[in-house]
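Re: that chain you flagged

S.,

Sorry for the slow reply, it's been a week of failed gels. I finally had a moment to sit down with the sequence you sent. For the record, here it is as I used it:
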Amino acid sequence: MVNNKKVKSSYKLNDNDILLINIPEIKKLDIEPENIPLDIIYEDDDILFVNKPKGMVVHPAHGNYEGTLVNALLAHCKNLSGINGIARPGIVHRIDKDTSGILVIAKNDKAHKSLSEQFKVHSINRIYIALVKENIKEDEGTINIPIKRSKSDRKKMGVNALGKNAITHFKVIDRYKNYTLVECKLETGRTHQIRVHMAYIGHPIVGDSTYSNGKNEFGIKGQMLHAKTLGLIHPTTKEYIEFSSELPDDFINVLNSLER
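Prediction finished late last night. Pasting the structure tokens below so you have them in one place:
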């Protein structure tokens, strides 16, 4: 309230204005373990590789306090790293709700620190598969364009010269009439990086309602983007390990229809 009246967020304050701010009580975050099936690819005492389905949120946040990957992990694991706080136990990195694919989970703080450092220096091998609109002429290429959060919509990212460095390497796997199947390798890991980069070069990901104005041609929910491969140095053994996950059924069905 300004001078006992509600005002818009664009209101410019004047001298002697009186502001009244009502701050709600902080809600205690109570995350319950849930018996949700997990597609575990690999697990030991330090780390866990899991194949996240499309539609599952990685960790609890506003509007999503149940049915997340963290809820499932709490029911599966007795111990998870606590570095990222009570809302994100074990979570070192994320993929979008409607992106399927492989994630690595830290089961202790030592493992978490090792993995975080590898993500920080961009040494982790991350390969995604995406179906994009229209035919990409080049067989392969690199998109090196900074990305920054949008001022007008905090849920969106965009290309911005003042943003953080973002590099995506892509390689064409197959071409269809009006679509291209590509492999995208992340050199950096910015929020929505592949989605923003592919849309920027005129080839938005099929099903991406945020960065594509086109219709959802195949009736699928969410973008056709899958985190297929994840390779890293094991926190304890110091050996390189790499795992891959299969494309989800809806992705395969669309590809089969395009083949026909």
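What I noticed first: The mean pLDDT is 92.

Talk soon,
D.
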